């Protein structure tokens, strides 16, 4: 019986040693991989203006104290700043048919009847039965819940869709 326990102790030490060495190897591979990704990210082309531009969004404290009208006014200012500082400042090589920051692009939001990248409220035709607030996802803006807002509107609800700070403007922030 003593021989059996001695064997298990020896096997446990071997397994522990292998686990330790394996963990160190995995950690070393992870460090090498991350170092390689950092190196690769620095070798890429320079960022465009829309990658580094940031609007003057309300802080959480300001949002807590603001009315929806004040929030919309700030949003209007942010999009005017985006127009002036990014759209109107585009170099010629960035003025392409698929650049959403180019004024004559097929996808420039300003050419549409309504810019669904901004906050909006849809009112029902009759007396409202209630209201819903729809929030878009992390990488989206209000356009992504437009269909849902229209469904609620058709059912008699006021649909409020705020643009969350930093969304729908520039992809870098």
Automatic annotation (TrEMBL):
Main EC class the enzyme belongs to: hydrolase
Keyword terms, alphabetized: Hydrolase, Membrane, Transmembrane, Transmembrane helix
Segments crossing the lipid bilayer: 21-39
Gene3D superfamilies: alpha/beta hydrolase
Entry EC no(s): 3.1.1.23
InterPro entries, alphabetized: AB_hydrolase_fold
GO MF term (any one): monoacylglycerol lipase activity
Protein's name according to its UniProt entry: Membrane protein
């Amino acid at each position: 019986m003593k021989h059996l326990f001695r064997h298990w102790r020896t096997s446990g030490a071997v397994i522990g040693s292998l686990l330790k060495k394996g963990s160190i190897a995995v950690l070393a591979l992870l460090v090498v991989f991350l170092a390689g990704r950092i190196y690769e990210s620095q070798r890429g082309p320079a960022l465009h203006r829309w990658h580094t531009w940031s609007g003057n969004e309300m802080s959480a404290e300001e949002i807590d104290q603001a009315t929806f009208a004040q929030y919309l006014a700030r949003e209007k200012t942010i999009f005017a700043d985006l127009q002036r500082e990014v759209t109107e400042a585009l170099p010629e090589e960035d003025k392409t048919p698929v650049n959403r920051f180019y004024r004559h692009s097929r996808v420039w939001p300003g050419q549409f009847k309504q810019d669904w990248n901004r906050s909006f409220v849809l009112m029902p035709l009759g007396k409202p039965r209630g209201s819903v607030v729809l929030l878009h996802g992390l990488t989206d803006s209000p356009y992504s819940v437009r269909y849902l807002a229209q469904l609620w509107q058709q059912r008699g609800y006021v649909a409020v869709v705020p643009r969350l700070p930093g969304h729908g403007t520039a992809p870098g922030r």
